[in-house]
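FAQ

Q: What does a record look like?
A: Structure on top, sequence underneath. For example:
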């Protein structure tokens, strides 16, 4: 199975990019993992929030296959401890999926079409983080989940 993180817009901060790359490389030892960036929309000044979400939703939809299991990283999603997230991940790994896709939306979240397409929603926290920080936190938590599944010492209980 391939695990993919789909994001709107590139990471501008060099230090964040470097940290994300650290976990990206580590994850390659456990599972095929990809990060795919959908470029920011251009000329959004005249778009209201809903129009922007719809346009981003169309770009996201174009990247999805019917067989993909789609998880939105959304503030209203289910929260997990790291251990419970690793169990959730193991369940998905055992399910025979071809692709497990986690999505970080744009600045205003997701369109209704993307919410309807999603198979699940996960919240990393009740706090609000920048979209760029979420990339780092998610890749670290995914790495942590794999180390928990392999009983490796990265995660301390």
């Amino acid at each position: 199975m391939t695990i993919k993180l789909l994001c709107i817009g590139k990471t501008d901060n060099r230090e964040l990019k470097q940290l994300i790359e650290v976990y990206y490389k580590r994850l390659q030892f456990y599972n095929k993992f990809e990060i795919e960036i959908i470029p920011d929309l251009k000329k959004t000044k005249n778009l209201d929030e809903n129009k922007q979400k719809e346009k981003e939703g169309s770009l996201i939809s174009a990247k999805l296959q019917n067989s993909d299991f789609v998880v939105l990283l959304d503030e209203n999603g289910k929260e997990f401890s790291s251990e419970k997230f690793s169990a959730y991940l193991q369940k998905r790994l055992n399910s025979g999926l071809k692709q497990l896709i986690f999505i970080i939306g744009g600045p205003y979240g997701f369109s209704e079409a993307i919410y309807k397409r999603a198979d699940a929603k996960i919240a990393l926290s009740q706090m609000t983080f920048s979209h760029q920080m979420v990339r780092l936190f998610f890749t670290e938590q995914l790495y942590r989940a794999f180390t928990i599944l392999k009983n490796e010492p990265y995660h301390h209980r």
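Q: Is there anything notable about this one?
A: DSSP finds five helices and five strands in the chain.
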